[in-house]
Amino acid sequence: MALAAAAGVWAAVTAVAGGFIIGVGRFRVSSRDGLRPLLATVLLLVAARFLLGGVEFRRGLARIAGADRGGVPRRVACVAALAVLVFSLAWNTRAAGGSDSSCYVLQAEAFAHGRSSLDAALDALPDAPAAMLSPTGFVPSPRPPHAPVPICGPGLALMMALPSLLARDAVFLVVPALAALTVWLTFVFGRQLDDDVTGACAAVLVACSPILLYQAVQPMSDVPAAALWLAALTAAARRRSVVAGICASLAVLTRANLALLVVPLVLLLPDRRSWVRFGVAALPGLAIAAALNAVRYGSPLASGYGSTGVLFSTAHVLPNLARYPAWLIATNTPFILLALVTPWWIARHPDRARLAGVAMVCAVLLCATYLVYSVFDDWWYIRFLLPALPVAIVLSVAVALDAIGRWRAASPSAVRRSRMRAAAVLAAVLGSWYIHLARSRQVLDLQPLESRFALTGRYAARALPPGAIVLAVQQSGSIRFHGGRMTIAWDAIPPDALDATIERLRANGRAPYIALEDEEVSRFRGRFSSQRFGGLDWPPSAEVQAPVRVRVFDVSRLDQYRSGASIVTEYVR
Which pick of 29, 134, 143, 331 has the fewest CB atoms within 10 Å? Predict the structure, then answer.
């Protein structure tokens, strides 16, 4: 029966996602057709019917469907969490891509080998500026020897460190697992605040949320921050002060500005003794953050993000007010605005006022933080608000079901039946629309789009000599992580020093290469227009054919090409 249920979930995810591939290391599982797992489901159910007999078979179906008292909402939440796990594994980018994802996976690799920074020196260029050795997502430390240090927080990388020792690609399993945990904790919070029906409905809506699905397939900290803060909130609501303190400190390690949200959690704890236990449990994580900041950036309160005076400004408020609310409504429908009616709901349920009030205050504090933060123009920057999204959805569902339940029926049993029917309709209608929005906002396109990073890195590992040095910016993180090759940031090389840098590398026995995405080519040529190698006027050794093309140039082939030799380009797919 359990196998039949698992096959049914597999078939549903395949049908919704259009197929998927799950891979860790050399292990690969693919599913392109939902018909086969559906047939497996039917065959397993038929086999179970004959093996168990009619009575036991019906009991098994009842257990899976949650026919036991109170079981349906819990099972719905479990299925929603499992579906998110399968989806985020299947459609995971599995790539050290842009600056954020490279920052986390390379930082995790450093932690796994007992380092807090990347290599600080290059023997072939002992006097190279520190910025040249910093891949995307890293900056030179202000402290000697000015090693490359991450711009992002350490929390997610610390969680990735142990899996990276087990298998290199295992770092990509952490965020999907935490995405599933976020969905489950949404159910837990909804049950604490209202009841299991509210929790299950909210869990389904969070599981279908475009921004959760968008971030669940990438190795970035937004989903982990949401999961850890929600874990702290639900633990504090249960008065488990030690667990709440540990989760709160991990949340702050993952996203430093969540420290503002930690203070209201204390209001959920019953007495001063619990406050002390909460603080003691949170202290180790905060001490780790302070120590890492001091080692990396020269001060316990410093970070890799830059000056707070530049990042935060009241001048950002109006532009962000024109963006974040519109993006939230566009991706969650106006239904999310019901959270604003929470004070009315609190007035009707004064026994739940403290939890609802603390959760609402925390959500408001988080939103206020990002209203004064730097202005961005892409919808997916609502990822910053992910820790508040489950709270907002739970509150919205609680308000809606309270109004519907009391309007349609009077007796407690009739109210619950009415709430369950309304929750089913909400989950089905809004969940389907959220999935439609996720597909229209290219959630399913991220894997092929980001494939260029892994493809380029694997090409480097296979085709470039171990001592190769690759001049790269956008591809610098992927070449280091997937390819195991050293990189130099070409945009940190002085415009008149490209040829000299390449010749010094060659004189010291290192083979230089240049890796560029299409949009980087014109900037590279413009920066090094006076340099011999700056024109890129010879065929590349490899061309990665992905939605974004990447070309890898072997500088040793320039003279061969000019002397009339034919250069063969390898096309990598």
Answer: 29
For the record, the structure tokens of 541 come out as: 């050794």
Structural tokens at position 289 = 């953050």
**Of residues 22, 5, 15, the one with CA closest to residue 86:** 22
Q: So what's the pLDDT on residue 465?
A: 95
Q: Does 384 reside within a domain?
A: yes
Strands (E), 101-179: 138-140, 148-150
Question: What span, in angstroms and rounded, lies between the C-alpha atoms of 244 and 258?
Answer: 14
The model's pTM is 0.88
Per the structure block, which two tokens stand in for 552? 């890898």
Helices 222-237 & 241-254, crossing angle to 10 degrees? 160
- Are residues 453 and 323 both part of a single domain? no
Distance CA 187, CA 234 (A): 10
Q: Is residue 220 part of a domain?
A: yes
- 536: β partners: none
At 129, list the tokens: 């500026």
Within-domain flag for 122: no
23 pLDDT band, cuts 50/70/90, is low
Cα(156)–Cα(72) distance, integer angstroms: 33
Write down the H helix ranges in 411-541. 412-440, 446-463, 476-481, 498-507, 518-527
Q: Return the amino acid letter for 450.
A: E
Structural domain contains residue 103: no
β pairing state of 512-517 and 469-471: parallel
Q: How far apart are CA 122 and CA 528, in angstroms?
A: 22
The pLDDT tens digits of the residues spanning 342-369 come to: 999 999 999 999 999 999 999 999 999 9
User: 159: closest CA among 213, 119, 104, 100?
Assistant: 104
